[in-house]
Specification:
Elements (H helix, E strand, L loop, with lengths): L23 H5 L23 H5 L6 E7 L4 H10 L6 H17 L8 E4 L4 H7 L3 H13 L2 E2 L4 E3 L11 H7 L4 E3 L7 E9 L3 H11 L5 E9 L2
Parallel strand pairs: 1-7, 2-3, 2-6, 6-7
Antiparallel strand pairs: 4-5
Helix pairs in contact: 4-6
Length: about 230
């Protein structure tokens, strides 16, 4: 008998390699990625050069890499990982992100990080959920790439209301002084892992804190980008 772990999470067909979690046919039917700016990840005329938005007001990171657009079925899988107590979905989703990063790296568009961090949850929310989905993704990616993972470098030092129902301005105010850095990161090439980037308020706030620590470079990796 085949267990759920040996079937595709989407079509339930048997998998040749069970740990991949998703079959190639389902992956090929994901919504195609439009041309996106390599720095902010928003639609642009070129996937190789920064868009006008980033030239006028550069974000606090050098590149943003995502596995797919925040649309079904990828967004559905991500929501199951976050809210349906399904941590085993972290591996197939992290694999999609790794493959996307490898594409950018082979093209010479990004440096190889030596340190991976994850956007932290506040302790109370972490206890409610049982795990931090960004941490699950980060641990896998760090192991596959041979990077150090520093789970306690970042801390969410202030509890904040959920971001989903807030406007962009409200999100920025909501996250003021919500994060702090607990370790020396000077000179490190960092990849910051989050599950989804919407307005970019969370990663902007964390990136500002990291840049104050004189890091060498910063990439943001996420499963989904809202376009």
């Amino acid at each position: 008998m085949l267990t759920i772990a040996s079937r595709c999470w989407l079509c339930q067909q048997p998998l040749h390699i069970a740990r991949h979690g998703l079959c190639n046919l389902c992956i090929r039917h994901f919504p195609p990625l439009p041309l996106c700016c390599p720095r902010c990840g928003l639609p642009s005329g070129s996937a190789l050069q920064s868009c006008g938005r980033c030239l006028i007001k550069p974000p606090a990171w050098q590149s943003l890499i995502f596995a797919g657009v925040y649309l079904p079925p990828l967004s559905t899988l991500l929501l199951r990982l976050k809210f349906s107590s399904t941590p085993e979905l972290a591996e197939p989703l992290a694999r999609l992100l790794l493959l996307r990063w490898l594409e950018r790296w082979r093209d010479g568009n990004v440096v190889r990080p030596n340190t991976i961090l994850s956007v932290p949850l506040h302790l109370h929310r972490h206890r409610q959920r049982g795990y931090n989905q960004a941490e699950l993704l980060a641990r896998l990616l760090a192991r596959w790439l041979g990077c150090e993972y520093l789970p306690y470098a970042l801390e969410r030092c202030r509890a904040t209301p959920p971001q989903q129902q807030l406007s962009e301005t409200e999100r920025k105010l909501n996250l003021k002084r919500a994060f702090c850095c607990k370790q020396d990161l000077e000179g490190k090439h960092i990849a910051l892992i989050d599950d989804v980037v919407t307005t970019g308020s969370t990663i902007s706030e964390v990136s500002k804190i990291l840049n104050k620590n004189n890091i060498a470079s910063l990439q943001v990796w996420c499963i989904c980008r809202t376009l």
